[in-house]
Amino acid sequence: MKIGVPKEIKTNENRVGLVPSGVEVLVHEGHQVMVETGAGLGSGFSDERYVAAGATIGPNADVTWAGADMIIKVKEPIAVEWPRMRAGLVMYTYFHFAADEPLTRAVMKSGAIAVAYETVQLPGGQLPLLTPMSEVAGRLAVQEGAKYNEKLFGGRGVLLGGVPGVPPAKVVIIGGGVVGINAAKMAAGLGANVTILDTSLDRLRYLDEVLPANVNTVFSNRHNILDAVRDADLIIGAVLIPGKKAPHLITREDLKSIPDGCVIVDVAVDQGGCVETIKPTTHENPTYFVEGVLHYAVANMPGAVPRTSTLALTNATLPYAVKLANHGWQEACRRDSALKLGLNIVNGKIVYAGVAEAFGLEATNVDSVL
After folding, report:
1. Which of 31, 270, 295, 336 is catalytic?
2. Please, which residues have CB within 8 angstroms of residue 322's CB and are 6 or more apart in sequence?
C-alpha cells in the first residue's frame, strides 16, 4: 500500500501522523511511505531521519495526498485540504465529526473512507487511540489553568497549591475518565483542593482508591455541579461520549454564579464542549471572557507539546495502521472489532450512529459496507 503523511496545517499544530520508527515498520511490511517535506520538524524529526527509515519525501501536500492509498494524519482535514480527498482514499486520523457538520458533509461528498481515531473502541469500552492524547490534555489542562489563573492573564490571581497560611485553589473536574484522572493527578500534585465529578459510582470508587486525599469524589448531577463550581478557581471540562456531541453541563446563566476570573478549560471542545459558552480557540488566541469567566478552549491542546504528543499518539496508532495497510480497510475491520468501530464515513455513507444522530442524518449499518 502507498501511505502518505502530510504536514499538519491547522494553526500551531506541530504534531505529525507518523514517526520515523513507524515508517521503518511499515516499509518492513512491504509498504511505500511518502512524508511531505517538513512534516516532522515541529516534533523534532527531520526529513533525513524519514529517508533513513525508508520513506520518500513528497515536495508538497498535493503530491503527498495524490500518491497515497491511505493518508495518516493527526487532525481532521481542514477546508483547504478537502479538495485533496477522493473516492476510495482511506483517511486515518482524528475527525470529531459530531462537532463539525461542514467537515462531515465534505467527507461524505468526497467518497473517502474515514477511520476516526477517537471512536476505535475495545470491547471493554476503552478508547485506545484517544487515551494518549487525553492523558496529555488532562495534564496540560491543569498546567494551562494554573498559568491563566495568574492576574496577568485575567485570572483570579490564585496559586493552585497555596502557601502555608493561605488555602490552595479549588479545582473542579467534570468527568472522571482519562482526561479527568490525569487532570486530578496533576492538580492534586500541585497541592490544590480537587473535586472530581462523574455519573458512574464504580468509577468514583476507583478514583477514590487511586487518587490522593486532597481529591474529593462527587456524584455528578445538576445540583452537585452547580454547588461545586460556585467557588471554583479552575474548572476542567472532561466529559466524553464517544462519537457524540458533549452535553452542556454548565450554561451561560450558570456563569453568573461563578467567581470573576475563574478559569474554565474545556477539553471536550473537540466534541462541542460541555460548557454552553465554549467555542474553539487556537494556541495564538487561546482565551476569551464570558460573564467575567475566562474560557480556554484550544481545540488541539496536545499540539502545544508536540514532541511528547506525537510519540504518545503514534505508539497507539501504529499497530492499527499496520493492520489497515496489510489487509486493506475492509478486511482489517472485519478482523478487528475495535477498528471497525473507527469507521465513521464510507463511500458517502455515515456508518457511525453518533455522527448521524448529531445532524439528523441517516446512519448505514457498518456491516453493509464490509
Report:
1. 270
2. 25, 26, 29
